[in-house]
Each structure stands twice: as structure tokens, then as C-alpha cells.
Amino acid sequence: MNKTWLIIQREYTTRVKNKRFLILTFLMPILIVGFIAAAGYLAISGVEQRSIAVIDPNGFIKNSLKNTNQISFSFPKDVDTNNYKQKGFTDILILPEFKKNEKTDYILRSQKSMGLMLQESISNKINKAIEDQMLQDAGIHQSILDSIHSASRFAELKAYEDKGKSSKESNAGLAMGIGYASGLLIYLTMFIYGAMVMRGVMEEKTNRIAEVIISSVKPFELMMGKIIGIGAVGLTQFILWIVLIISLTSVAMGFLPADVQTQVAALQQSNGQMAGGGMAQASESAVKIYNMQHTIATANWPLIIGCFIFYFIGGYLFYAALFAAVGSTVNEDPQDAQSLMFPITMPLIFSYVITTMVTQNPNTPIAFWASIIPFSSPMVMMARVAYGVPSAVSYWELILSMAVLVGGFIFTTWLSGRIYRTGILLYGKKVTWKLMFKWAFKKG
Amino acid sequence: MDPLLRLSNLKKYYATQKAVDDISFEIQKGSIFGLLGPNGAGKTTLLRMITGIFYPDGGDIILDGKPFNSIDDIQKIGYMPEERGLYKKMKIGEQALYLAQLKGLSKAEATEKIKYWFKKFEMETWWNKKVEDLSKGMSQKLQFVITVLHEPKLIILDEPFSGLDPLNANLIKEEIYNLAKKGATIIFSTHRMEQVEEICDHIVLMNLGKKILDDTVTDIKQQFKENSFLIQTDNEVTIHPNPIFSTISNEKNKILVKINEGYQSNDVLKYLLQENVNIVAYNELLPSLNDIFIKLVENTHATARAFQNN
Lengths: 444, 310
Fold this sequence. Notes:
The complex is a heterodimer of chains A (444) and B (310).
Chain A: H1 2-16, H2 19-45, E1 50-55, E2 71-74, E3 91-94, E4 107-110, H3 116-137, H4 142-154, E5 159-163, E6 166-170, H5 172-206, H6 210-214, H7 219-254, H8 258-269, H9 284-298, H10 301-329, H11 334-358, H12 365-372, H13 377-385, H14 395-423, H15 433-441
Chain B: E1 3-13, E2 18-28, E3 32-36, H1 43-50, E4 58-63, E5 66-67, H2 70-73, E6 77-80, H3 92-102, H4 107-120, H5 136-148, E7 154-158, H6 166-181, E8 185-190, H7 193-199, E9 202-207, E10 210-216, H8 217-223, E11 228-233, E12 245-251, E13 254-259, H9 265-274, E14 279-285, H10 289-297
Parallel strand pairs in B: 3-8, 3-9, 6-7, 7-8
Antiparallel strand pairs in B: 1-2, 1-4, 4-5, 9-10, 11-13, 11-14, 12-13
Helix pairs in contact in B: 3-4
């Protein structure tokens, strides 16, 4: 045990001290945040300005076509398809006279073709204007219409789960997000750190140090030391990422205007109801932030984090052992590794595909079985757990899945240990899965 | 005196061949022992059983009077495998420290000993270098230091001189003698016979997994001598056929003879003196281990047997 500890220390410190680890750990969150910020910035500033001349014989469309930061609408009298360019417009929109219950086309001519999003937003606006006009024609007054619109804008679906007597607010979108994110994280971890274990084993083999070490420690100790050491590196990286992302987010929150911050705080205290006059007093952005925070708070975080850590470690141990076994059988040729890795990467990729399905539909038979079988359970069960325990996943399912995973990684570790101890000292022989199977189950 | 290592009926069978087939021998404390054999004779497999890397399929290993137990006895053994290997990216000092700690030394002990050996081999400036920056000979020296650092009772060296220049080879050779003098037992596995002749007290020759020779170097040479003598004379002479010996060659005042059965070397001298031959030198020609090795191993298809392990 003492020696395994030495190996863990070496595996951990050589990797954590490595420049690449430091760069990746500190750059990744900055890159992610930077990427999101850049995407947001581009979405705002990078768009082209359109100035559209509208020819509208109806008259009622005008009120609905409001200028946005991207499009400015004008309603000039003397513009047609021949001269809109000279007059300084990028597009011209020609509307026919709309008649009741009659489908007609309207035409957009542009110097440069218009993106789908813009086209849709324009057609939505026009259709809505026509719809409003029809309602007004049917006798509904404009002020009634406005109040209907503003009311429907504030209404949202709040789903509740019934658990015995109490019911709890649930949020499918959030569950999907958490399920998908944690499934993806576990998937990436297994790939990245599993491959790291494999490379580490291969390194020992190709450096020919394996035999020196095996004369001091048991092959199993060496393998476990490596798996645990690299797992600890992965865990360290994750913890650092989480800390960095949380601190970056709180720094970003600090940049919000002071009045928005106080409003958010007030909303939190009053549980979403603003005193004296209701929501109207809070600015729109404060309400949005409050809603986001409120939604996030509806998830059962202790359960999700607990399960995440369990499946993260369990899934890692399950796959890392297999990757170690493959690494031990590889000779100098890295192509061998590719073909031997295939049976391990296949279930991983397959599990990922199932996970994306399960995030939308957590209670299908496939979801159940995939969350029990240890090849896929770390990812798939996380996707299901996000929907709530015991409402989406019953306790016995969760316990069964965990137990099978523990049994699974004990089995893969045992199996890999047997392949590893033979493979690590073998050179110059092409190893097949059949041969590995033989090593694993021969006696002695 | 009790032997340090006693192997009895040791066996290791692989699916297609008997890598080590019923081998028994003893190694005395403080001796330098040569384990010889052509490629694929089973030397590495045998050594791996002694170092606890492989479990024997049969037979016993008694180390220092007790049955060998790979967990407790690891510290008593220093093994330098033929396949040399170190972590290329790790600093030399840290690497030596790590490997010594794996052998069971405490950090302080290990540091002290590494400093001693590094000083001895003039390697002190290497501490912060990486192995990938070392020449082959340098890393060989490092490997040797790592092997003997924890003062093992049994030191197993598989081809210790391969890749070393004569200067460094001599340095290592001196160290091997020193360690033996201090009481360490050394197993020296090689197929370089001239080194064995020079260094080893006792040898075992293996072929096709079996032991075919087990004796001291002098006794083996006696055993395989062909009663050949080299006579040097001061001028050219003609030797007439005689019953005592037959002449194999006679060139440039050097006569190579083989004594016939029933006669002693003195009979040759007597005969030559009678013939009034002026003898300048008279030596017995002992076969080299190389000759014995080739003679014994030839025609056994030893080279066809590649190392296998499944």
C-alpha cells in the first residue's frame, strides 16, 4: 500500500507540475468564458445593418415594423425596385393589399441575400400585424389586444412534481441542461483521462522501465497507482475549473449596474414578489437574473453533485482500468493502440448518444437499461438523475445502478490487472483481444 | 557455508515450450555467478522468477535460508534487466530517489546513498538533468547505481556491459568486485564469454530451458581440455611421428601437439629433450569458454527458439 502511495504521488506530481497541465487548467475556463463573450459580442456588433424600404398599400403594417438595432424600416413614397439602391436602401419589401382569408405573397428584393433569422423575424412581424388587424376587424379593440399581448408575455409554465403530499417546482429545461452537461463532462473525462492512463502505461512500456519497477512492486500496485494518480489529476483539474468558473461568474456579476444588483437582492428576499407595486418596479434584466437564479435553485443540487462525484469516479475507474489493459499490450506501434482501443471507445460513444436521447426522455426502457449497465450508466444515470429522485429515477434504480458500477469497476480492475501483468513485459508480439482474454482467464 | 540462493527443480512452462525446465543450482554467498546461454535459453525467464516477477510453475526458490517471498524479499534483490529503462522526462535525481523508495528505502536514506554513488561515479552534476539528455553509456551507469543503491544481498545484472565504453565498463567491473568483496552475491547473465571468464567464479550454462553445465570456471576448462600443448622452440625443428603425441601444427617455431591417451605432459617434454629440441616455452592450451559454449550449444537449434510468453 505504501508503494502504491509512492506511485500515486509520482503520477500526480509529474503531471500537475507539467506546464501543459497548468496552461490547460487556467486557460480552459478563460477560453470558455472568452468564447461565449466573443460569440455574444459578434452577435451584437458583427451583424450588418439593413435599411429596408417598405411599400405598403395597407397602412396597418407600419406600426408593427419597428426598427431594431439591425434593421431600420422606412416607408418612402417614391421608391421602387429599380431605384431602391440609388436611394440608399439595402432591401425593398413590397407588400400586396391583404384581403381577408386570402393567401398572398409578399416580396423582398435585396442587394445581398438576407439571412434566415432576419427573414423569419420580418415575416413574423408582418404575420402578426395581419393577425392583429384581423382581430381588430372582428371587433376586438386595440387596447384589449395590447393587454392580451402583455399578459401572455409574463405568463410561463411552471411544472410541479407531486411527491406524496408535497409538490415541488420542477423544470424540464434545467434538468435537460444539467443532465446533458454532466453526461458530457463524464464522457469527456473518461476519454481524456482514460487515454492519459493508456499513454502512461505505454510510456512505461516503451521506455522499458516497466521491468525495473515490476521488480520492486507488484504489477497491480503499479497499475492502481497510475489509475488513482491520474484520476486525482483529473479531479484536481475539475475542482480548479469549477472554482475558476464560479469566481469568474461572480466577477462578471460585479460588473452589473448597482441598481440591478439591489433589485436582484430584493427579489430574492421577497421570493420573487416586489413590494409595493409588484414586478413592474424591477427592471427587466433584474427579473431575468432573478428568474435564472431561481430556476437553478429548484434543482436538487446536493443530490446531483453527490451523484456526479460518484459516477465521475466510478465511471473513471471502470474505463481507466480497461484503458490501462490496452496500454499494456501495445508495442511501439501506436496503430495497435487504435485498433485495440476501438472496443472501449465504441461503448463510450454509444453511451454518449444514448445520453443525448435520455436528456429529453428520461424514462424509456433504453434509458433504464443504459443507466444500469456500467458501460453507460455513469453518463446515462446522470442524465436521468437530473430529472429528480425519486420522481424520474426511483431509489432502487439508483442504488442498483451504483452497485452494478462498483461491481463493474472491481471486475474491470481485476481483469485488467491480469492482462496488464503479462502485457507490460511483453515486447515484439502483436496482441489480439483473443490473446488478452486468454491472459485474463488463465489460472495462476 | 549456506548458499545465498538455492533453486530446486524450478519450472516455467509456456503454452508452446518449456522456458525453464527443471533447473536446480546453488549460488554461494559473496560469489560472482555467471548465468550463460544462447538467446532464448530461458535466462530471462529464470531471472524473472528469482526476482519475483514471474511465479514458477513448479520447484522452490530458497533465498538466504528461507523460501522466497516476493513481497518481503524485494529489498534483498537488485535487478538490472537487459531491457534498460528509465523515465525519459524525469529528472535523474528524482528518478533515483523514486526507484529507491519503491525498493523500501526512506527518503533520507535514499538521498544519502544516491549522493554517495553519484559522487563515486562523478555524476553529481547530473541531478537536475533529464534522462533523455544522457548518452547511452551515462544512462547505463545510472541504471547500475539504481540497481545497487539499496545494498541488496543479491545483485542480478543482465548484460551489464552492453553499450559501455571500455573505461566505463572497467569502472562497473571494479564495482562488481567491490560489491562481491563486501559480501554481495552477484548473478551475471550474459552471452559474452570473455567477460565471464574474467569475472565469474562459478557458471551455469543453460540451453533450451535446461541446465547443461554447472561448475567453477577452472573445473569446466579442465573438463573440456583436449590435452593440447603449445611448444615454442628457438629454431625450426621437425617432429617425427611418435606414440606419445600427435602434431597438429608446426609453424614458425610454434608446435601445437595433442597428447595421446596414456601419456602425461612430462612424457612430451622427456621425448623432446631426448630429440635435443631447445624448448623456450611449454604451455597447456585450455579451451576458452567461448569454444566450450559453441561446442555445447551448436546443433541444438537453439537460435530457432524465440522468446515467447503466452
